[in-house]
């Protein structure tokens, strides 16, 4: 998930396909895919001679390898779940849109509403978003426990739509502050809700790849808002149009959620086994129903049937350990400097002749999007833990590369190009691991009963750290210089890689219930 936001100074379920029955006359069974795509049947001629059998064996092995390879290429097991995850990820598109929507128009907004030239008020208009997001994050866990994901998504569109409309119609400072606060409130709920929903709906095999859709949605939202904001350079009232447009995805999200499925895990917790079985059958396949329901019931028998978890449970093992990991991961992510790098990226691009801040931001957004696409492939092949460690090490190298370019006497153009390379490397490596993995692995490690509360706690920590970094960054640069601050970011990135190595367990290829059983001491050795 894209989690760098702002600085506080201006600057319908998919229907199942029928599969064909295999003919018992066929010597080798054809491979059947989840959606009924049938590979051509192959009949091999039997021979009585030993020599002919020997010569055919390598061909049979090659055929088996080829079928296995084709099976991987045409693996469409993720497709039934994709539309549901795609609708949920529209929330992240809104998140990204509201990140970028204030980049350029803040000057026009300040001029029209009468607070131009006041850096405190301009910063307040930007940062009030974070105050709303903090409150939204804290409230999300209780809402999900009581209402489930679908209804929470739909209710959450109310502040998102109202906030965008109020902002678009604002004629005073108080009105724009109210609009931005409401938008932040909705975004805070969504940043917690989307990873929970995806982790509980997605099949185990594809949970990581589908989980990166939220990060991709954020990237697309940022890019869209930056492109849409280009006319703002010439039209001082264009910002109102941009806010009106921001209300449209909220309506689409509320409507789309009417056709998506509820989390089968939440349905089991509230006793609706029939609907849970139907969803699992439609999304994961018939073969997964009995196993999944058995795992769900095993967890419920251990945790109890109470849907509403308590905040004090986060002080008990193993929940306290997961909450600690979640909080620290977001502290390290934010203090690894993503906000600061984004802020100075426009200045670095200016040094090489790219004077347009929108164009520089577009370069950064496209790099971020490219990294997110790579993460969607690597998440379920390399695993979360390895990806996170590699990501932070790459971010550290990028930071130290920029420090080298600043501190050492190099030819000016070469130094600028080196800084550009370091900046884009940093954004790319962040988007591969530190961005999407952090929001994905926390709900995977959390128990079914406390997942909402742990995610709420972790993201509230994220918003506090986001605010602090944005508040202190420019002062630190003024006191210590850019190179020293960037060296600090690189050091935190190394520390983050070490923390991930020692404290995280791999979740790739394991169901949420398997992970919980391994972490819950009450269930080791067969449960209690």
Automatic annotation (TrEMBL):
<dbReference type="InterPro" id="IPR005828">
    <property type="entry name" value="MFS_sugar_transport-like"/>
</dbReference>
<dbReference type="InterPro" id="IPR045263">
    <property type="entry name" value="GLUT"/>
</dbReference>
<keyword id="KW-0813">Transport</keyword>
<feature type="transmembrane region" description="Helical">
    <location>
        <begin position="76"/>
        <end position="100"/>
    </location>
</feature>
<feature type="transmembrane region" description="Helical">
    <location>
        <begin position="479"/>
        <end position="504"/>
    </location>
</feature>
<feature type="transmembrane region" description="Helical">
    <location>
        <begin position="420"/>
        <end position="442"/>
    </location>
</feature>
<protein>
    <submittedName>
        <fullName>Probable plastidic glucose transporter 1</fullName>
    </submittedName>
</protein>
<dbReference type="InterPro" id="IPR003663">
    <property type="entry name" value="Sugar/inositol_transpt"/>
</dbReference>
<feature type="transmembrane region" description="Helical">
    <location>
        <begin position="210"/>
        <end position="232"/>
    </location>
</feature>
<feature type="domain" description="Major facilitator superfamily (MFS) profile">
    <location>
        <begin position="84"/>
        <end position="508"/>
    </location>
</feature>
<feature type="transmembrane region" description="Helical">
    <location>
        <begin position="454"/>
        <end position="473"/>
    </location>
</feature>
<feature type="transmembrane region" description="Helical">
    <location>
        <begin position="387"/>
        <end position="408"/>
    </location>
</feature>
<feature type="transmembrane region" description="Helical">
    <location>
        <begin position="177"/>
        <end position="198"/>
    </location>
</feature>
<dbReference type="InterPro" id="IPR020846">
    <property type="entry name" value="MFS_dom"/>
</dbReference>
<dbReference type="InterPro" id="IPR036259">
    <property type="entry name" value="MFS_trans_sf"/>
</dbReference>
<keyword id="KW-1133">Transmembrane helix</keyword>
<feature type="transmembrane region" description="Helical">
    <location>
        <begin position="322"/>
        <end position="346"/>
    </location>
</feature>
<comment type="similarity">
    <text>Belongs to the major facilitator superfamily. Sugar transporter (TC 2.A.1.1) family.</text>
</comment>
<dbReference type="GO" id="GO:0016020">
    <property type="term" value="C:membrane"/>
</dbReference>
<keyword id="KW-0812">Transmembrane</keyword>
<keyword id="KW-0472">Membrane</keyword>
<feature type="transmembrane region" description="Helical">
    <location>
        <begin position="120"/>
        <end position="141"/>
    </location>
</feature>
<dbReference type="GO" id="GO:0015149">
    <property type="term" value="F:hexose transmembrane transporter activity"/>
</dbReference>
<dbReference type="Pfam" id="PF00083">
    <property type="entry name" value="Sugar_tr"/>
</dbReference>
<feature type="transmembrane region" description="Helical">
    <location>
        <begin position="238"/>
        <end position="257"/>
    </location>
</feature>
<dbReference type="GO" id="GO:0015749">
    <property type="term" value="P:monosaccharide transmembrane transport"/>
</dbReference>
<dbReference type="InterPro" id="IPR005829">
    <property type="entry name" value="Sugar_transporter_CS"/>
</dbReference>
<feature type="transmembrane region" description="Helical">
    <location>
        <begin position="352"/>
        <end position="375"/>
    </location>
</feature>
<keyword id="KW-0762">Sugar transport</keyword>
């Amino acid at each position: 998930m894209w989690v760098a936001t702002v600085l506080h100074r201006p600057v319908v379920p998919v229907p199942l396909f029928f599969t064909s029955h295999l003919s018992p006359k066929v010597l080798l069974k054809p491979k059947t895919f989840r959606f009924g795509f049938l590979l051509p049947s192959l009949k091999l001629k039997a021979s009585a001679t030993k020599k002919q059998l020997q010569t055919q064996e390598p061909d049979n092995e090659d055929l088996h390898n080829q079928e296995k390879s084709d099976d991987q290429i045409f693996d469409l097991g993720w497709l039934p779940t994709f539309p549901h995850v795609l609708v949920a990820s529209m929330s992240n598109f809104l998140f990204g849109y509201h990140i970028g929507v204030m980049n350029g128009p803040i000057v026009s907004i300040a001029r029209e509403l009468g607070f131009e030239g006041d850096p405190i008020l301009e910063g307040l208009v930007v940062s009030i978003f974070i105050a709303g997001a903090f409150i939204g994050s804290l409230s999300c866990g209780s809402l999900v426990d009581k209402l489930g994901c679908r209804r929470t998504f739909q209710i959450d569109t109310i502040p998102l739509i109202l906030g965008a409309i109020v902002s678009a119609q604002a004629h005073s400072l108080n009105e724009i502050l109210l609009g931005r606060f409401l938008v932040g409130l909705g975004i805070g709920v969504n940043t917690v809700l989307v990873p929970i929903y995806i982790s509980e709906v997605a099949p185990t095999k594809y949970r990581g790849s589908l989980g990166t859709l939220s990060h991709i949605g954020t990237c697309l939202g940022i890019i869209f808002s930056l492109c849409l904001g280009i006319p703002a350079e010439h039209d001082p009232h264009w910002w109102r149009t941009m806010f009106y447009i921001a209300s449209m995805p909220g309506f689409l999200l509320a409507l789309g959620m009417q056709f998506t499925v509820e989390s089968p895990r939440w349905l089991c917790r509230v006793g609706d086994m029939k609907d849970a079985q139907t969803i699992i059958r439609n999304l994961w396949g018939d073969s997964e129903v009995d196993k999944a329901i058995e795992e769900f019931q095993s967890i419920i028998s251990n945790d109890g049937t109470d849907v509403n978890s308590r905040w004090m449970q986060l002080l008990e093992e193993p929940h306290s350990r997961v909450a600690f990991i979640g909080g620290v991961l977001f502290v390290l992510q934010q203090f690894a400097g993503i906000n600061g790098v984004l802020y100075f990226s426009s200045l670095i691009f200016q040094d090489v002749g790219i004077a347009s801040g929108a164009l520089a931001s577009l370069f950064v957004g496209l790099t971020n999007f490219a990294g997110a696409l790579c993460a969607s492939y690597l998440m379920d092949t390399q695993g979360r833990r390895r990806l996170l460690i590699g990501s932070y090490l790459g971010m550290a190298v990028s930071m130290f590369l920029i420090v080298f370019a600043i501190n050492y006497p190099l030819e000016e153009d070469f130094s600028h190009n080196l800084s550009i390379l370091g900046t884009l490397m940093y954004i790319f490596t962040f988007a591969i691991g530190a961005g999407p993995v952090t929001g994905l692995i926390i709900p995977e490690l959390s128990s079914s009963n406390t997942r909402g509360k742990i995610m709420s706690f972790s993201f509230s920590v994220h918003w506090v750290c986001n605010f602090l970094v944005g508040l202190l960054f420019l002062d630190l640069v003024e006191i210590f210089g850019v190179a020293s601050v960037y060296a600090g970011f690189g050091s935190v990135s190394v520390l983050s890689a070490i923390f991930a190595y020692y404290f995280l367990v791999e979740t790739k290829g394991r169901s949420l219930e398997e992970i919980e059983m391994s972490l819950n001491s009450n269930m080791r050795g067969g449960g209690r």
